[in-house]
């Protein structure tokens, strides 16, 4: 596999390489393929400090959510760190388990039923019992996800940021949910924002942001963005042909 690099809108410290993975949404086969490509690239081109980052929305709607979480819980496919960021679907799942009621019903309508089925949790079970029925290592992936990550000239988060606010003033609600006014903003932020959350048929590459949710669960592609020095490349694999309703 040979990557095609192009100039990037910002830069990372020398020796640091980031593989940022977009919204997986339970597409286990696509996720496994992307991790395999990352491992192949690292074996061919070792880096001093490699890092794999999931941009959130590992779960919901897809064909095998539990398998994705189990693979993420197993750790990085390459030497180095693996960091998982909080997506709105992880946030909905955690809220559903804590609050039940309307929160649980809302999560289930947003794809949570697919997760419950993958975990073998009966539909009539109570939300307060769900945590005890989820494999502990998979639950830890959800609970330990962080809202954002700053590296060099990049800011990684699930949905985006509130334009006009400094990065240290951003709130978690925006980081996991925002679309507008972030998506249409041409403002120069403190760092180039790398995000998912809003699916597009192709990667969005602008001077102030890079969007890499390419709709794997909707029959699109799963994308990994490779960042090193002042350049970037893309890895992509097809999503499942028939996403779960």
Describe this structure in words.
It is a single chain. The protein has helices at 28-44, 65-73, 88-99, 101-118, 127-133, 136-143, 172-177, and strands at residues 6-7, 16-21, 49-54, 81-84, 148-151, 154-157, 192-195, 204-205, 209-211, 221-228, 231-238. The chain is an alpha/beta fold and 245 residues long. The model has no long low-confidence stretch (mean pLDDT 97).
Index terms:
five-stranded mixed beta sheet; 245 residues; 31% helix; single chain; alpha/beta; six-stranded mixed beta sheet; 7 helices
**The CATH topology is what?**
Purple Acid Phosphatase, chain A, domain 2
Q: What is the second-level CATH architecture?
A: 4-Layer Sandwich
Arithmetic mean pLDDT: 97
Element string (H = helix, E = strand):
EEHEHEHHHHEEHEEEEE
Q: CATH superfamily, called what?
A: Metallo-dependent phosphatases
Q: Helix amount, in percent? A: 25-40%
Kindly estimate the percentage of residues that lie in beta strands according to DSSP. 15-25%
Q: Which radius of gyration do the C-alpha atoms yield? A: 17 Å
Strand neighbour order, sheet with most strands: 1-11-10-2-3-4
Amino- and carboxy-terminal Cα gap: 34 Å
- The helix tally amounts to 7
Spans where pLDDT lies below 50 across 5 or more residues: none
Shape: globular
Quickly count the domains.
Answer: 1
DSSP E strands, number: 11
Give a quick account of the main beta sheet: strands, pairing sense, barrel closure. 6 strands, mixed
CATH class: Alpha Beta
């Amino acid at each position: 596999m040979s990557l095609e690099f192009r100039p990037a809108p910002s830069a990372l410290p020398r020796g640091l390489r980031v593989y940022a993975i977009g919204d997986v949404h339970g597409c286990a086969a696509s996720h496994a393929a992307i991790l395999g490509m990352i491992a192949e690239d690292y074996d061919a081109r070792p880096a001093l400090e490699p890092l794999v980052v999931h941009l959130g929305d590992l779960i919901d709607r897809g064909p095998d959510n539990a398998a994705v979480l189990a693979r993420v819980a197993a750790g990085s496919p390459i030497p180095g760190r693996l960091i998982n960021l909080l997506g709105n679907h992880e946030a909905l799942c955690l809220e559903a388990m804590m609050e039940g009621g309307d929160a649980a019903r809302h999560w289930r309508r947003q794809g949570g039923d697919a997760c419950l089925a993958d975990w073998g949790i009966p539909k009539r079970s109570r939300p307060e019992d769900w945590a005890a029925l989820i494999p502990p290592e998979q639950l830890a992936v959800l609970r330990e996800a962080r809202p954002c990550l700053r590296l060099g000239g990049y800011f990684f988060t699930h949905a985006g940021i509130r334009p006009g606010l400094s990065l240290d003033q951003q709130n978690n609600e925006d980081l996991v949910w925002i679309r507008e006014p972030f998506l249409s903003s041409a403002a120069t932020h403190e760092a180039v924002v790398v995000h998912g959350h809003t699916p597009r048929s192709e990667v969005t590459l602008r001077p102030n942001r890079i969007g890499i949710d390419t709709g794997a669960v909707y029959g699109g592609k799963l994308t990994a963005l490779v960042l090193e020095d002042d350049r970037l490349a893309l890895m992509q694999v097809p999503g499942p042909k028939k996403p779960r309703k």
